Every structure is written in structure tokens, then in C-alpha cells.
Amino acid sequence: MAVKIKVVQEDGTKIDYAGAAVRNILRVIDAIQFFIPYLLGAILIWTSGRKQRVGDRAVSTAVVKA
Fold it and tell me: Is residue 65 within 8 Å of 9, Cβ to Cβ?
């Protein structure tokens, strides 16, 4: 809310609790450290056509402006 973004399903509907849980569990993959924390997550976002991290890809969500 502070940065005026929200997570929604790709069709624009609200994300459910199961999707939110999976999305956050998969944050561990984004945080795998090479030399810089979250570098893998950034690479996954840069290579995604819709700028989605691995958790977003898994549960078909997107971060949008609120």
C-alpha cells in the first residue's frame, strides 16, 4: 500500500491465500545468493516477458500499480 502496488491474478482478479503462500515460499529461489543477494530473482524478472519472478510465474500472478 505504501508504494501503491498490488499482486493480482493475470486476469485481474484478487489472488487467493494458496497462491499467495506458494508465491512467498518460492521467494527462497529468488534469494539464492551467488555474489549478490536476489541476483537470480532479478535475472528471472529481466528474462520474463511480463517481468515476473519465479513465484509469479508459478501461480500466474502479476504485480500492478494500485
Answer: no
Which 8-state DSSP code applies to residue 52? -
Which long-range contacts does 18-21 make (Cβ < 8 Å, 24+ apart)?
Answer: 19/59, 19/61
- Kindly state the helix (H) or strand (E) to which residue 18 belongs, with its residue range: helix 17-25
Output the nine-digit C-alpha cell for 65: 500499480
- Output Rg (C-alpha) for the chain, integer angstroms: 12
Answer yes or no: are the C-beta atoms of 10 and 63 closer than 8 Å. Answer: no
The pTM for the full model equals 0.79
Q: What is the pLDDT of residues 29-47, one digit of tens each?
A: 888 877 778 888 888 899 9
Distance CA 28, CA 56 (A): 13
